[in-house]
Each structure stands twice: as C-alpha cells, then as structure tokens.
Amino acid sequence: MVGALERVLVCSPCTAGWRQPEHWRELGFHHTPDFTKAQTQHDTLCHQLALAGAEVIEITPCAEFSLDAVYTHDASLATDFGLIIMRPGKSNRETEGVHHRRFGESIGIPTFATIESPATTEAGDILWLDASTLLIGHGYRTNAVGIQQMRDLLTPKGVEVLSAPLPYGNGPSECLHLMSLISLLDEQTALVDLPGLAVETVELLKSRRFRFIEIDYSERGTLACNVLTLGNNRLLAIEENQKTNTKLRQAGFDVRTFPGSEICSNGSGGPTCLTRPLLRG
Questions:
Q1: 194-244, pLDDT tens digit by residue?
Q2: HEC states along the chain?
Q3: Measured between alpha carbons, how far is 32 from 257 in angstroms, rounded to an integer?
Q4: pLDDT digits over 69-97, tens only?
Q5: How many other CB atoms are there within 10 angstroms of residue 255's CB atom?
Q6: Residue 164, number of CB atoms within 10 A of its CB
Q7: Quick check: 29 and 66 in contact, CB under 8 A?
Q8: Which of 10, 55, 118, 200 is the most interior residue, by most CB within 10 Å?
C-alpha cells in the first residue's frame, strides 16, 4: 500500500456524470457540484499522478454511475491474486463493482473474488498493514459479514484479516471510513486522526511499531487525514490543508498537492478516495 505507485485507475467527474449532477443532496454532497471546477481539479490530480511516474487509466463511462463513482477507490481492492470486487454499503454504489470487474478484465487484471450479499464492504475501510496483514474497519459501510467473507477468501492465501471498530461519527447517513482516520505514509508511519480511532486500533498499530503523525485538527473538515502515498517518501495531499502538509514536510516527506475544494471537500473524498491503485512497486 506504500510502494511506488505504477498504475492507477480513476473516474473523472465527466465520467461520473457531474456535468448534469442529480440527487447530490441525497448522496451527501454539501452543495450542487461545480463540474468545470471539479474537472479542472481532477485533471490536476491526474497530472500529479503522472508526474510521479504512474500510468493513469480512466474507467469506461457507464450510465449507471452516480456522482460517487468519482471516488473510485471503494468499489474494488487490488491484491496479488487479482481484484476483489466490493459490495458497497451505499446502495447507489452497488453496481460500481461490476464495472470495475469488467474493466479490470479488459486490461488483463483477473477477478479473484466478489463479495456477496448480505455482506457489505468498501475499500475505503481497508488497509494493508503489510503484505500479509489486512486491517478492515467495521462500520456502516463494511459489516461483520463482509469482514468474515474477506477473511475466508484471504486466510488460505496466507493473509491475516483483522477488524477495527469504527466510531458512530455523524451516523449512517454520512461516510466515515477507516481511511478517514488513518493513512499509511510508509511501512512504519501513519497519519492519524487520533481521537477518532478506537483504543484497540491504536494499540495494534503501536504493537507493530508504527509512529504517528497527527493531523492539524483545524483541518479535519477538509479531509486532512486523507493522503495518498506515491512511494519513495512522496505523498499527494489536498493543497488547502496547509498546516497538516507542513507537519508532513517537517517529518521529511515530499508532499505534492492539488486543489480539492470541489472534487474532494464537496463529496467528502480525498486523493486516496479518488484513486484505485492497481500496481505498486
């Protein structure tokens, strides 16, 4: 999860239907999406990904995509065995996984497994702590059945699946993923929203000798904890979170940024949410 990013899938606002936004209130957006601004910001994100050496691939458009499809991270999980197709807990996103599967297969990426009802899983709740340990947040988007299905799939492959309880937050109508509270920066460093993490999760990370960098809490509302690792000490963050980005630079990281006032803050999805890494070094 922290190796050099080599290939990444994205879904632009154009592809996700932001040109004619519908049902934005029901989907939890803060205001009517500004397509032009969002597309420009997404283009800047993709430019930064390419500058970092990643092959950036746009998913094929689909009439079933909702505005949320722009947050392409959630509908599938890349593993060494192929894609695991998620079953999102947000009902308007249930069909996204099917399109991730079809698109992946069209570019030579096999499907390893598909999460089945009544399980729900979203990849925003999933962290690879190392190559053989997966930490999955248990909340409103990923349920206990989903975590057990992931465990049943991956245990035979030598992967230990651990569960991390998530807080209630603002309730089921809003999205609070595990990756809303923690981003891995390298093999031993995590950016954290510490008060939001359960004690057992904090203790687990400490037992694995992770060091913590806490976000500047004045920037919690602008997704300061959502940072994408590009590998080799490089990070991609939202430019508006200047205080947290300064902390990261002071810790020795090369922080690249893009504007996220529309593409990120409006729909509550940061640079990790906007990307589905397919290959890392």
A1: 999 999 999 999 999 999 999 999 999 999 999 999 999 999 999 999 999
A2: CCCCEEEEEECCCCCCCCCCCCCCCCCCCCCCCCHHHHHHHHHHHHHHHHHCCCEEEECCCCCCCCHHHHCHHHHEEEECCEEEECCCCCHHHCCHHHHHHHHHHHCCCCEEEECCCCCCCCHHHEEEEECCEEEEEECCCCCHHHHHHHHHHHHHHCCEEEEEECCCCCCCCCCCCHHHCEEEEECCEEEECHHHCCHHHHHHHHHCCCEEEECCHHHHHHCCCCCEEEECCEEEEECCCHHHHHHHHHCCCEEEEECCCCCCCCCCCCCCCCCEEEEEC
A3: 24
A4: 999 999 999 999 999 999 999 989 999 99
A5: 20
A6: 24
A7: no
A8: 10
Rounded Cα–Cα distance for residues 175 and 178 (Å): 10
Task: At 148, give phi and psi (nearest 5°).
Answer: -65, -40
Which tokens go with 181? 């509270």
Phi, psi of 33 (to 5 degrees): -60, 135
Tokens representing 275? 């990307």
Structure tokens at 184: 């891995």
CA dihedral 35, 41, 43, 47 (to 10 degrees): 180
- Amino acid letter at 155? T
Summarised one tens digit per residue, pLDDT across range 11-52 is 999 999 999 999 999 999 999 999 999 999 999 999 999 999
* Residue with tokens 């803060």, as numbered in its chain: 30
20: CB partners within 8 A, 6+ apart: none
